[in-house]
Amino acid sequence: MTLSTIKPTKQDHQVAKLAALATVLSLIEFFLPSPIPGVKPGIANIITLYALIKFNFHVAFWVSIIRVLVTSILVGSFLNPTFFLSLTGALFSLGILFLTKNLYGKCFGLLSLSLVASIFHIIGQFIIVRIWIIPHDGIYNLLPLFLLSAFLFGLVNGIIVYRVLQQKPSKYNVK
Amino acid sequence: MKKSYKFTKLVNIGDIVFISICFGIILFSFFQMINLPRGEYIKIEDGTHNEFVFSLESNVEKKIGGPLGDTIIVIQNNKARIQSSPCNKKYCIHQGWINKINETIVCIPNKISLSIIGKTPSYDSINY
Amino acid sequence: MNLAKFLILIVLFLTGCTQNTTQQYKDYIFGTIIDIKIYDENPKKSEKVANLIFNDFHRLHDYLHPWKPSEISNINDAIKINRWYQIDDPELIEILIDNKELSKKTDNWFNPAIGGLIKLWGFHADLPENKLPSTSKILDYLTNLPTMEDLIIENKMLRSNNKMLQIDLGGYAKGYALSRAKKILLDNNIKNALINIGGNILAVGQPGERFWRVGIQHPRKPRAMATINLLPGWSIGTSGDYQRYFTINKKRYSHLINPNTGFPADNTQSATVLFAPSENSEIKSDVYSKPLFIAPKKFKVELAERLAIKNFLIIFDDGQILISKEMNEAIEWIDIPNEEVLQIH
């Protein structure tokens, strides 16, 4: 599970490019002020979702994990609570994407996929916060707000991924 | 390398159903939160497990020490907030006033938490 | 894909974080829920001890049950046909003698001999039967009201002068179970625990530096009306008309039947008693709430004094509160049923 085990295949180059892009988005988000702690647009998830739809789950998984690792090292939060928060969020949203990815195209589109990923992202982080960082029931009062922001940003991110994928329809198999 | 992917419409039937359900749940959770009873006391905990409890009816400023320095907490008009904090991001200050039971402000860097608690603390078991 | 492994690791990590210093065990026995909390012990050990307690309760249930086949129902069957019955279990003999003494002490306000009357009111079923017995049947029963005095125990043999006598230890079993649980905890060197048997609670030790804290059920609302600290060894019990009852024409008929009138007591919504640790205090915390609930209002204070119940809290039918001075000092109200509090000095 280390970077060295990845043999540089064509796909790995793709992973690297996308992960780099995702890291940049994460960094932008990190330095942007957020009005309420914990409420963030999660724009790096756009890349994860893009990778999942355009390539496969494998690519999306590594893009997301590398993004978390590299970002945390760059901002100096590696192995901090913050790092575990983003890792858990990423794993939760990857987990639910893994379980639901086959529903894509069957009545469900990008909006649902993005929404479920973003909601599980926040749920994962929330669990960590509740049992580890702030073991206090009071934080349940913040849950509705977090869910609402996950809902809105999930939809927005879904629309963005849709637009990005639409950009060069001629290049891909379009139904 | 190129992998075919299904290109669906932006909004499908399943999306509408799923989005509506999510929105419903979130609305419901907000409604639940608004209905919470108002609290009566404020409990302040610092990183060394010291607990301080004050009545929300008092009008005072409290200085609580943490690893980064002193956090100043203001209690007035049945609500409480963090007025100043030595932490970097000042999230705790931006949370503003709290006054409902279980509402909490936490300053993780300075390891200080305030939470509103009821007149009677919770219990371990119930006699009936 | 190592995703599965990774997710499993994360799950293990998460569960590792939830480790709590209080372990909680639940089981359903005596038709109610048993809840055991054990503070700061090796989880394996506390689970073992909790299971010892649960097993003991299953055993008690099997021989104390008033209407399902049990040792008690065998005794009742023998009494019905005026036979001697041999009891080999010294524990059961002790329990019966204890019940004789308790009913004598309470002037039969606690009367475990009236199983027949309770059955008449339809409470010998998992759900009450929802119908009124005929008044003539009740009057009939009262002319020959059995008490524990009618029960004769000689050596291991038992019989009754009154064929109507039917033992029902429903008002005693939970308290007795608490005293058994206390013994099992002490035998196994568990120092801090809280045991709740269908509302009757015993505190053993305390969780850390604070005390065990219990809520007292509001008789008309789905929440606690007050809370109180249970100091080490203290126990608390409540008799309430909300526990088992049925309503006909908006009138509530509870399972707490006045042996002198033959009708469910209706002057009280709930009676709570609290006992400091002493010989059989857990049993008293169950048994003594019954006389305080059932006896007419004017007798309650005197009865409490005579039974040396220092801590009691009675909510009358109109919500009026009768509370002892000691209890009043210990209790913290959340939702007081009536502003009018009659305090006893």
Protein model, in words:
The complex is a heterotrimer of chains A (175), B (128) and C (345). With 175 residues, chain A is an all-alpha fold. Chain A has a single domain, classed as Arp2/3 complex 21 kDa subunit ARPC3 (Orthogonal Bundle), CATH 1.10.1760. Chain A has six helices and no strands. Chain A has helices spanning 10-31, 44-54, 57-75, 81-100, 110-133, 143-166. The radius of gyration of chain A is 16 Å and the shape is globular. With 128 residues, chain B is α+β, with helices and mostly antiparallel strands. Chain B contains two helices and eight strands. Chain B has helices at residues 13-34, 91-94, and strands at residues 41-45, 51-55, 60-65, 70-76, 79-84, 104-107, 112-117, 125-127. The radius of gyration of chain B is 21 Å and the shape is extended. With 345 residues, chain C is α+β, with helices and mostly antiparallel strands. Chain C folds into two domains: 22-40 and 191-344, ApbE-like domains (T-fold), CATH 3.10.520.10; 64-170, ApbE-like superfamily (T-fold, Orthogonal Bundle). In chain C, 35% of the residues lie in helices and 26% in strands. Chain C contains eleven helices and 17 strands. In chain C, the strands form four sheets. A nine-stranded mixed β-sheet of chain C has the order 1-2-6-7-10-13-14-15-17. A three-stranded antiparallel β-sheet of chain C has the order 3-5-4. Chain C has a three-stranded antiparallel β-sheet with strand order 8-9-16. In chain C, strand 4 and strand 5 form a beta hairpin. Chain C is globular, with a radius of gyration of 22 Å. The termini of chain C are far apart. The chains are: A mainly alpha (175), B alpha+beta (128), C alpha+beta (345). At the A-B interface, helix 1, helix 5 and helix 6 of A face helix 1 and strand 7 of B.
